[in-house]
Design goal:
The protein starts with a strand and ends in a 16-residue tail after the last helix. The longest helix is centred in the middle third of the chain and has 16 residues. It is an alpha/beta fold. The protein has 11 helices and 14 strands. It has a 7-stranded parallel sheet with strand order 3-2-1-4-5-7-6. It has a 7-stranded mixed sheet with strand order 9-10-8-11-14-13-12. The structure holds NADPH dihydro-nicotinamide-adenine-dinucleotide phosphate (NDP) and N-acetyl-L-glutamyl 5-phosphate (X2W).
Length: 343
Amino acid sequence: MTQHRIAILGASGYTGAELVRLIATHPAMKIVALSADRKAGMAMDQVFPFLRHLDLPVLQKIDEIDFSGVDLCFCALPHATTQVVVNALPRNLKIVDLSADFRLRDPAEYEKWYGQPHTAVELQREAVYGLTEFYRDEIKTARLVAGTGCNAATGQFALRPLISAGVIDLDNILIDLKAGVSGAGRSLKENLLHAELSGGTHTYSMGGKHRHLGEFDQEFSKIAGRPVQVRFSPHLLPMNRGILATVYVKADPQVVHATLAKAYAAEPFLKVLPFGALPSTRDIAGSNFCHLGVIGDRVPGHAVVVAVLDNLTKGSSGQAIQNANLMLGIEETAGLMLAPVFP
Ligand SMILES: NC(=O)C1=CN([C@@H]2O[C@H](COP(=O)(O)OP(=O)(O)OC[C@H]3O[C@@H](n4cnc5c(N)ncnc54)[C@H](OP(=O)(O)O)[C@@H]3O)[C@@H](O)[C@H]2O)C=CC1
Ligand SMILES: CC(=O)N[C@@H](CCC(=O)OP(=O)(O)O)C(=O)O
């Protein structure tokens, strides 16, 4: 099988390491370059001893990499840095970006949510939104794909088919979400110290401030053909991986279940549980699966959808590989059918 030559920028971060872990057993990808910033010059097993069994290139600064020998580049860098880096890469290089820089179509929306003007607007326009199950055809022919926010992916898996089918009240949607701490990346932050995190939970970016609302607004309004604004309450939980979104909608619960089950019947990674069964993050850790459950609320005419996925796989690096498979003409599930880790 052809081995596509892969570079990973930001390989010393959490999503970068997850890309390496998954690509290590991919049948048609070979890692030829890895980048880091502070950790440039180090071997991967110095940064991540859990990858010691692999023979990997040394971490380099981005400007030391020869991209002429690369077929596809995963970019797992912080937002804002990303647009500068991608703008300087060869224009024929296929890129799957994991940051927020190319997710929003409208430059004004980017500035609103990220607090600064976009400096590569033409790339922003070129990028295809990377929620694979809903953008497959565009992703197959794209050069630049923008991976979704991990929370944004979870909420969209619960809601997109319901909005498309017109079975929920569009003005009555609440996404209450719990996220694991690896979603915040590997750089040191005081509030993420074990002593300050492990004993409790708290909300963050409440009151309509979370940046993934930009993705919800963009995508839900596009599907509905009119503005849709959801309510969103993110919480940080003292767990490493995983997101659980509890989504409250005004709708017939059986119709909600039937709509999701039908929409995802042929999807290899999206699993709808029997009516009334609800999923747990414990059942998807380390895998590219998203589990969804539906139950009737106590108040008639209301339903609750619960969606879970792993932020480092289906929420970022697994999704990125799924998109790269399509861009390279490989089987979409290649390298991704790993079972979750349990317990
Ligand atoms: N973590 C998650 O669950 C998700 C993350 N994302 C997005 O993916 C991207 C990567 O996230 P994550 O892996 O968590 O982040 P980390 O903070 O864990 O890693 C960031 C990586 O970028 C490198 N880096 C930082 N600054 C620079 C710079 N100025 N120039 C070059 N390289 C730099 C770091 O290198 P070094 O450490 O050597 O300094 C490191 O390799 C982010 O945009 C994030 O928002 C998207 C979905 C989910
Ligand atoms: C726990 C935590 O902090 N999670 C991050 C989501 C990670 C992600 O999807 O990041 P980007 O949108 O920045 O790429 C958050 O809620 O902002």
